[in-house]
Design brief:
By secondary structure, this protein is mainly alpha-helical. It has one domain. It is built from 15 helices and no strands. The chain starts with 15 loop residues before the first helix and ends with a helix.
């Protein structure tokens, strides 16, 4: 009997663009590992110091503030990355200065309004939505982090557009956990740690991160300091609106499960699930690392009509990402109880949910950077529609499954909706751009011929 196997060449060639991707992704990867390591320590500290119930209050407040932060950015983060990347590549520094100044001004206004709204509405959110009186004060304090964190993300995307990937990744993923772990660790040596103290430390960490990010952008662009900058705010907003809807629906996808658990179940369930969610994201953190360097390259390749390099870069990156994700997935599938036992015995009951969520994240990685391909090639409206359907599916499934299966129900709903969105996006990337971005992908010659006509 003969057996045939599908051969998957991982890295068949490395041209100058791929070497830049590998080098840049390595920096981002190291930053992500650094951030993930401190994130793991932070979750361990939270679980050990305040237990599942206290962790639930913290994660609920963080979920609300994260949703608010997306609203405060207006979808400008990916727009900044796209326009900074393309204009810096063509040495149009006046436009780069304009993009930075206009986006900062718009985000400052929007984030300020959102932060004030969350601060004033914290009591009804706590009492009427989640029925958790303890959430009120935590939410009020954490609302102060909305403005600095929104602006820090824009600064990080500016650095991404300038191909300062490692630095940008540190700001986006590592700096807040590092400062927060340090602050909470020092506090625990002298006073009992409470949810309020951790939330206050979070606000402090976001303010410091914003200041550092602002300085790094200022230092990276000395030649634009004297420029007034010229870029249309209307162009920024018209481009960012579809991306804002994408980001909003994407964040709904990411936080529907934990929010609905807060509505239907206990704070203890939210605490356990919050830890599970953050552990499962370690499967796909490599995707975010690669996306940070891939995004500006994709934008430039598409602008120049260079589909050959675009295709090679995306497919090879997918194969490399899948290799890394496989290792973490296997650990979670085989040893979920051992991993969760590190956080305390009350967290072990989430073992099955961890395996389910991790599988969903693995599918997300193995389909490739399809979302970034759609955004950076100007097809953000397609992505918006896909994420919109996925978000509605997520909400409906969570509302049905959580009351029946609790943690496992939330995990099933989220894993299904995430996988659905990435698979459909991969189909559209093949139809529109001509790339099979998944691990088994091949390049569509027909699309290249059409593009060249």
């Amino acid at each position: 009997m003969k057996f045939s196997f599908v051969r998957i060449p991982v890295v068949p060639w490395f041209d100058s663009h791929l070497r830049e991707i590998i080098r840049g992704s390595s920096l981002a990867f190291v930053s992500r590992i650094f951030g993930a390591g401190f994130g793991f320590i932070l979750n361990l500290l939270i679980a050990r110091l305040i237990g599942a119930n206290g962790a639930g209050i913290y994660f609920l407040a963080l979920s609300v503030v994260t949703l608010a932060t997306v609203a405060g950015r207006l979808g400008l983060d990916n727009v900044v990355l796209r326009f900074v990347a393309t204009n810096s590549d063509s040495k149009d520094w006046n436009s780069v200065a304009g993009v930075i100044k206009q986006s900062r001004k718009l985000a400052l206004i929007a984030s300020g309004i959102v932060a004030i709204s969350v601060f004033l509405l914290s009591r009804p959110i706590a009492l009427l939505v989640f029925k958790e009186p303890e959430l009120n004060l935590s939410l009020k304090i954490m609302a102060l982090a909305i403005l600095p964190f929104s602006l820090a993300i824009l600064q990080a995307q500016t650095l991404n557009g300038l191909k300062r990937v490692g630095t940008a990744s540190l700001i986006q993923t590592a700096m807040v956990p590092v400062i927060l772990v340090t602050s909470v660790g020092i506090l625990s040596l002298f006073v009992p740690v409470t949810v309020i103290k951790i939330v206050t430390a979070y606000v402090f960490a976001t303010v410091i991160t914003w200041c550092i990010a602002f300085y790094l952008v200022w230092r990276a662009l000395p030649h634009i300091r004297s420029l007034k900058g010229k870029f249309s705010a209307r162009t920024l907003l018209s481009t960012s609106l579809p991306l804002f809807l994408v980001a909003s629906m994407n964040i709904i996808n990411n936080y529907t499960d934990i929010t609905m658990l807060g509505i239907f179940q206990t704070s203890s369930d939210v605490g356990v699930y919050g830890i599970i969610t953050r552990l499962s994201l370690l499967v796909s953190f490599v995707l975010a690392a690669f996306n940070s360097i891939l995004s500006p390259k994709i934008a430039v390749f598409w602008k120049n009509g260079d589909l050959s390099n675009l295709t090679r870069t995306v497919i090879v990156a997918t194969r490399l990402m899948t290799l890394v994700a496989t290792v973490i997935l296997v650990i979670y599938i085989i040893f979920p109880s051992s991993v969760l036992g590190l956080f305390g015995q009350e967290f072990v009951r989430g073992s099955r949910a961890l395996a389910i969520l991790s599988l969903g994240q693995f599918i997300n990685v193995s389909t490739g950077s399809v979302g970034q391909v759609l955004v950076m090639t100007g097809h953000e409206k397609v992505l918006r529609n896909i994420i919109g359907v996925s978000a509605m599916t997520n909400v409906i499934m969570n509302s049905i499954l959580i009351p029946v299966w609790s943690l496992e129900g939330a995990a099933l709903a989220t894993a299904f909706s995430t996988s659905f969105a990435t698979i459909v996006a991969a189909i559209y990337v093949r139809r529109i751009v001509g790339i099979d971005a998944h691990i088994f992908g091949r390049y569509s010659k027909v699309t290249q011929q059409r593009r060249s006509l």
